[in-house]
Amino acid sequence: MKIRLQAILSAVILALVFSACNSGSTNKLLLHKKWRVYDVVIPPGSAYDITQINQATDLKRGYYTNVFYQFLDNNLFIATIDNKPDSGKYKLLSDGKVISVTAANGLRSAENLVTVVNLDETHFDMKVKSGDYYFILKTKSE
Prior knowledge:
Shape: globular
CATH topology: Lipocalin
Radius of gyration: 18 Å
Oligomer: single chain
Number of domains: 1
Number of helices: 2
CATH class: Mainly Beta
CATH architecture: Beta Barrel
Distance between the termini: 55 Å
Structural class: alpha+beta
């Protein structure tokens, strides 16, 4: 019985360590870069929806033409839209696969969840919800 309990406890500890490592690597890749949006696409596997396709095109040509994001120390998040910065807080969830972005006061009443689709040293693709649809924002580090 003791051995089984120790094995279970060890497995739980290992899972926590590995998940913390993944969150840490996500944070390390995000930190201290300007992630500029260069494309807005529809998530793979989405059903064909002409409204969603048109919105992706409109977002790319309009709202996201001059947008970048920064993740800084102390979980500070800055979104700059058309040269106007706005700050908030971010927190990594689900082993670094989801990013919670909240207002600067950290209240979750205005929380936005972003799913990490692809992240490396130079590219960060994130799935976001805008209105009724999901989109992938493709960004490059500057």
